Amino acid sequence: MRGRSDAILLVALAASVAALDQLTKALLASAIDSGRLGSRVAIVDGWLALEYTENRGAAFGLFLGLAPILISVSIAILMGLLWHYLRQTRPSLLQTLATGAIAGGAIGNLVDRIRLGYVIDFLSVGPWPNFNVADSAITVGALVLVWGLTRPASGLRIGQSIDQ
Q1: φ, ψ at 152 (rounded to 5°)
Q2: Global pTM?
Q3: Which among 45, 112, 135, 163 is annotated as catalytic?
Q4: Angle between the N-to-C axes of helices 67-86 and 93-116, in degrees from 0 to 180, rounded to the nearest 10
Q5: Helix or strand or coil: residue 141?
Q6: Is 135 a catalytic residue?
């Protein structure tokens, strides 16, 4: 991994996403009724709100009460993703950014699961289940990764100038 500026970018992005996720959750828990369940602050009436919720399952509250298994599965998926990434000789910039976003989101939610036994969700958009910064990073990263992997291999590489 020595000399791989792409890995440095990936780690920096993952750390930034995880830190932003934890910061927003801490700010929300302290600002909205001391993190009391059901506390809600409307931003755009009926469409966008900040609402403190505790997700004790996986996505959309599936697999409730299986925190130890969810922790193990999350770590296994994260390790598999990073292993696959590090096997790439010259990953594209899109692949690096997407993998960094997914890893940072996974780490942010893992910190909650390990520390609290649940994940704090707080963004409420319309009828959609509440989510957080980590969930957003995982979703956007996964979409970008799939999009990038289904396109021809002509992406800009880390350390490559545009005119190369």
Answers
A1: -60, 145
A2: 0.82
A3: 135
A4: 160
A5: helix
A6: yes
**Out of 6, 112, 121, 163, which one is annotated catalytic?**
121
With H, G, I as helix, E, B as strand and everything else as coil, classify residue 43. Answer: strand
Written as one letter, the residue type at 43 is I
121 catalytic per annotation: yes
Structure tokens at 54: 């505790």
Instruction: Look up residue 119 and give its DSSP letter.
Output: E
Residue with more model confidence, 108 or 53: 108
Q: Dump pLDDT digits (tens) for 89-139.
A: 888 889 999 999 999 999 999 999 999 989 999 999 998 889 999 999 999
Tokens found for residue 154: 């002509």
DSSP class of residue 5 equals H
Tell me the two tokens of residue 108: 């942010």
